[in-house]
Here is the input.
Amino acid sequence: MTSTHGAAGHTHGMNADADRRYLSIAFLLIVGFMAFEVVAGILAHSLALLSDAAHMLTDAGALALSLVVLRYVQRPGGEALTYGRQRAEVLSGQANGAVLLVLGLLVIYESISRLITPPDVAGLAVTIVAAAGVIVNLAAAWVMAKANRQSLNIEGSFQHIVTDLYAFLGTLIAGIVIMVTGFDRADAIASLVVAGLMLRSGFDLQRKAIRVLLESAPAGMPPAKVGMAMAEIRHVKEVHDLHVWELAPGHPILTAHVLVAQDADCHAIRREIERMLRDRFTIGHTTLQVDHAQSQLLSIQR
Here is the structure.
């Protein structure tokens, strides 16, 4: 039995440093604007601005959590954590998804009450703050888009920022409508749209995290297809006990028992299978048990 690890430690460290820099820039942008928006929302009596500010608070929390997790997963796993700490990225993504779901439900509840009894909303203030929010979140999203979004840890924070960008666009439209028509319910309607986006992003993050935690096969990598590709290699007679799952998105793992012809070189075939899995399916971490197939079944006669 042999195990191969396709890790590139130096490259991973460089990527992690770049991701940390992108996260830090986005964090500073979000926190600075959030403080400004809280004050503006209170003065303008705008639920849309306050809900955006609340979402930006979760953005800041998500970015802070991502920074902590990014540093955590780089630490050695030690004797107990034989796969290292990468699964923490999935837990971070799941936590971000849960926050988006809860916040979305809270905003829906408050929006409905404001649709029934809408308060007076300062349309000009809402419009100015929302326009500034669009610019800030565009900058933060642009920075975050450069990071490794295959990681659920990074993707969770990115989804927070993108959802907030859409929220500010909706709030900007609502502010203009209020200024032009005096229709104060536009503020609550914009909040409902924001809440819907929160729920969608939260559900998507939960779905991806649960797939990994249940050790499902990676998306687009059916185990049957992988097994057939292994069985097509010369001298391979049978592939069974095949398992494909992900430690984290983008880090697939495979284990299998392979039977080869009696006169075949087990080690050479193992290397060929590993090369095929790496080149065709980008599976760099494999554990293969390769044995010779029995020429005939053992029979016991009495």
